[in-house]
Amino acid sequence: MPRPGSYTTMGMDGRLVSVITVVISLICAAPEPGAQEFVRGGFNPDDPPEANIRLLPYLSFGAQLEFEFQYQRNADLDTTNDEDFTTIEPALVLALSFDPSKYFQAYVDMKLAGEFEFEDSRTTKDRATLEVELAYILLKEFWGDRLAFQIGRQRFEDERQWLFDAELDGARAFLYFYGIDAAFSMTRGGIVDVDLLNRDAGDKTNNYVTYWKYAFSEDTNAAAYFIFRDNTKDEEESAVTFGVHSDGDFTDSLGYWLELAYALGTNDGSDTNGIGFEAGANYILYPKLEPSVTLAYAFGSKDFRQTGLQGNESDFNGAVDFLYYGQLFDPELSNMSIFTAGFGVNPTEETSSIDIVYHYYLQTEARDTLVNTGIDADPDGQNKSLGSEIDLVLGYEGEESGFSAALALGYFIPGAAFPDDAENSFLANLTLEYRFQPRGEREE
Q: Can you spell out the DSSP letters for 153-201?
């Protein structure tokens, strides 16, 4: 979620309200499309709408309503200043897909949102945004479906968002040969403004990425990658990350994942030269309700940094994605060890889940700074113990109804690296989403 800041208040005039009314009317009146299968994974509010409502023979439409509420108490761990920080963001996301042939697709996804932030009941931000989240052309199914090209603003997301969770502008090529899925890309964040209503500085970093993946079976794969990020605003600011990834199933009940990377270069003015590692396993105890136990360990050496594009968000065995390094503390894996244990159940098979997750954080080298965390306090640089967090995550995904929801509660307990009188911090995040369905699908 964005931090408090100083922004100019903007209102939406009557014309904007009229446009929204017309759009929603079109959604409700749209006819059922042809035989187009709707495929969706676990609930992730960052996923774009599926363009599954047919408007014209080659033109499809999709839309979803989103609402996010987040409340955090005592982000600075200061007992003398129990600040409350609240954000509310309602949004309407619209998508169009033009598919005149099997070789060509043009897709655009736009998000109209209101952003409201309050600190100690005082408004600190109130504005409207109109973001072009995705806008690309996809040339596909060449050379016997072995080659494809994608140009424009596109989404980059690896299996566990350990490397990428970003929309980037540029070009990407996909190549399939001898069982290997390879991707090559050259991108930059925000070559064209993302927000059409507000000035956006954009990211001036060029990204050069190659990612190679091989599937040993339907459920088990391995990948290797090379990432070079070059900040065009600072000649000395560049970094290389290369490594391997694997995830899959040992048995029907036991799954695993593995991340191993080496990073070197310069990041935020500091030298980067180190190893990042994570290994985890999830075991389903019984078929009914699928109660499962998850254990994981992540390590970042003192000078390791993640790519800067990561999201660190996935699921263990449930219906909803969440921040697996801690919903509240949510650190970048740098100069840190993270021990994770979780227990979850799926009360209604794949449509709902309940997860309880525990994290313990320990610095690799005691320092008085942290890298990209969800709290605003610094450790003392003498003790390595940063503390622990307990999360409760409830998720629901209704594919037939189009309604999905996620509630995540996080409670961070400071460790010995913070003052003795440091107070615990609490976070609550509620996300609701309604995905408009074709008429025939709604009536089922």
A: EEEEE-TTSSS-EEEEEEEEEEEEETTEEEEEEEEETTSS-SBSSS---
The distance in angstroms from the start CA to the end CA of the chain is 36
- ∠156-360-78 over CA atoms, to 5°? 95
The span from the CA of 253 to the CA of 292, in Å, is 9
Reported as a pLDDT band with limits 50, 70 and 90, residue 28 is very low
Sign, CA dihedral 369-372-373-376, equals positive
Give the mean pLDDT of 365-381.
95
**Residue of 164, 255, 169 lying closest to 211 (CA atoms):** 164
Count of helix runs (H) and strand runs (E) in the chain: 2, 21
Of 321 and 441, the structure prediction assigns the larger pLDDT to 321
The helix (run of H) or strand (run of E) holding residue 241 is: strand 238-249
φ, ψ of residue 11 to 5 degrees: the values are: -110, 160
Indicate the SS3 state at residue 240: strand
Question: What percent of the chain clears pLDDT 90, i.e. is strictly above it?
Answer: 71
pLDDT for 323 equals: 97
Q: What is the maximal distance between C-alpha atoms in the chain?
A: 67
